[in-house]
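Sequence only, no structure available. Ideas?
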Amino acid sequence: MIPEKFVAFLRGPYGMALASRDASLSPLCTLVFGIVVEPESDTLTMFVPNVLAGATFDNLAATGRAALLAGHGEMHETYQFKGAYLGHRPTTPPEQALQKVQQNRVVAHFRGELGERSPKFWLSFPVAPSTAVAMRIEEIFDQTPGPAAGRRLGL
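Reply:
I predicted one. C-alpha cells follow.
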C-alpha cells in the first residue's frame, strides 16, 4: 500500500518525469502530465505526451522497469518511485482533460519562479495525443538534495 504522504505528494502540481532505460542500461527521461494513484494496489498511471516519449515505450517493454521522479522545489522535497512496468495504452478523453488541468496547475505553480516564462515553457508541450503508462511501485527513495539523498523509504 502506498503511504498517504506519497499519494498526496503525487497529486502535484510538481515537475514529474518518467525514467526508463534500454537493454544496455542507457537512460531516458520524459515529462509526465497527470497521474492517477491507486494506493490500495500500489499502482499508478502516468500520462506521457507522445511527442515527448521517444523510445520510452520500447524501453519499458524491453526491461519491464519504470521510475517516476517527482519534485517540489519550494518545499525542497523530491522522491523517486521505482517499480514494475505494467503496460501502456492510449489515454481516454477524461484522462486528456486531467492532463490539461495538471499542465495548468504546473504553470501556476512555477509562475512564482519563472514569471511569464512559466506558461511559455510548460504550455509548449502538447499533451495530446498521449499514452497512459501503468506501473506498480515497489520502492520509494528520497531524492531531495542533501544528506538523505538516495535513502530508501520503502512502502
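The two ends are 7 Å apart (CA to CA).
Hope that gets you unstuck.
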